[in-house]
Write the structure tokens for this entry.
Amino acid sequence: MFISGIGFISGEGIGLQALRQTCASPVPAPEISDEIIKSYKFPRDLRRADRFSRMCMIAGNEALRDSGMETDNCGIIVATALGPHETTFSFLGDLIDYSGTEVSPTKFSHSVHNAAASYTSIFCGIDAFSLTVVGFDNPWAKGLLAAEIMLAQEQADKVLLIGADEKKLLAELLGKLDSPPGFPRDSIECAVGMLLSAAETPESYCRVSALEEKDALIFSGKTGTVKKLPVSYSGNVFFGSALDCAVLAVQKRLWKN
Amino acid sequence: MSNANSAVNEKMFSELKAKLVEWLSLDDVTPEEIGTDDALFGQGLGLDSLDSVEIVVMLQREYGISSKEISRKKEVFSSVRTLAQYILDNRTD
Amino acid sequence: MGCVSAAGTGLSASLEKLFSSPETPQVSRRIADNLSLPVFELGEIPGAGTKQLTGILLDMALREALDNAKLNRDKLSGFRVGVCLGTTVACQLNALDYYRELRAGKSPDNAPLRAFAGSSLAEAVKRDLNLSGPALSIANACASGADAIGLGGLFIKNGVCDLVIAGGADELSLISMTGFNSLGVCSPAPCRPFDAERQGLNLGEGAGVVILEAEEHARRRGVKPEIPLSGYGSKADGYHITAPKPDGSGLISAIRKALEQAELSPRDIAFVNAHGTGTDSNDSSEALALETVFGNTIDFLSTKRFTGHTLGAAGAIECIFTAQMLMKNEISASAGFEKQASDMNIAPVRKLTPVKGAYALSTSLAFGGCNSALILKRI
């Protein structure tokens, strides 16, 4: 499969420029500001979308725009470790502050992990499958694998893969745990979107695979076969690997030209 | 007596419009722009099924009206006027 | 296969129950919801309290499935084994007391946090059984179990794994009970899928696990494969965050995709084990979808009157029930149903019905518009 479009949002902004800025800056902005999120306009029926869903919609839509492709026969996969954890905690807050009959149904329906994929499929016009893949151990790699299999088995001919995690209370608490190791401490908050296509297009960055080695960026979680970035940034969010993947894809294209 | 009633009603209309904007995240409309007799669902304000259940919770939290008591929901929820009247008749806060 | 739910612990207990009268859901004894919601709560579970209940239920179903497949930790070690499991509750840190203390500025014991950090269902199974293949959890709300099995099957078809442990698990929780109640979809009485007087769903809990295996691999192991997974289709509605598309078009597409993958036509399907939660909107849009694809003579039922809606486990448990009914060659009357609804042109089966064909379909629909279809075959 091919990476045919990349979308990105971080504390440095939205789009490929923000991706470059995130890598170039010695201390990239650790969180995405409210201003950045609010700068992206959504139609009215999506007004209730929470922060996590908005991050996913933005990264996904930017990847689509970058690819110039239509979304016919396109599936969506959202890969995340913690999902909309700010909203989940907010719902717990409702339960503590009010009785069981006074909790917000809007908050509840947004606290489930697949809400973001649902919003993005409405916003971007996804008509094939929708999957939300969850795990602590490199969810991006899992999402990439699922995308590759779904494409190989012709469940769609394109997949919009989005990797996202908020850096709110739960992420910070987990970062302070001594064990298990591997939870990121100095991390930046970001969401990465990729339009993955079964077929190569003139816009394609490079081939990518979660399985094969030859001629492709491999993503089983290790940094790809391309030269490692000369920049030191603590981009070690759960999506460090998604970030690596995006940066390496951009590098591959620059070298192609 | 009708003047006092209508003042009470007007106050509830504005209060309710402000609460609807806040509770339902209606960030593209101001309370003043909502017509008291505009349809809330379908046409007019164009609210949907999720807004409907959110309003039920709003009535409980803000005015102490239990969801079990709401009969004739379609009529009660049809406009700001009908909803405001229902609140005035049933609030327990 | 292995399963646990209010219908029973284990396959034979569950199957026996499916062909007799369902239990009556009761108000929870374990969870103080102050809602008086009837739920399908499991009784005393051995080992409860040692870890999250969802994980315990999963272990029970997993042990049974491995036994039936003549597998264990040692036997698995030479193979490429993947794990694909669906859940909703287990993905979130739902520790209310812990959060309450944190919010109040205290420093509570972080045991719930540490437990959560080790709780990713699929990763935990991979660790416990020392497996080497991919391990993914699917959080697709009420379609999670079905999607986990569907995707797991594709891992095998694509040659990535020899075996996949697939399924789903979910426990009752205060979060899901208050949340679903706030959406106005819970029934104050036992659920009545597809019935004219239906008032909503009852929540339940449980787990279902299937061991998926490439046919050739099973034969080499000297094990007879039980039920082929012939087709999988999954489609997004792209419509609304909670309401299903009223015209059922998402589910129609998913079913057609599964049929296409299985190289079958609608008339090859002998019966459908529908999602059938008992809510107004699910049942009417699902009935319309089934009628559109199959016409008005299709045999279909819902088993949720036996188990309640087990969320992430539902798609898996129901896939297992579908397989069991296929092997038994008959389906039970759709429990909870009495009278055809005016908003539907078709009705589920009212009595014990023989299975007239080799293939069956199991459907699952989720909030957020995920629609999934699995096709099974009797050998």
About this structure: Chain C is about 35% helix and 20% strand. Residues 53-68 of chain C form the longest helix (16 residues).
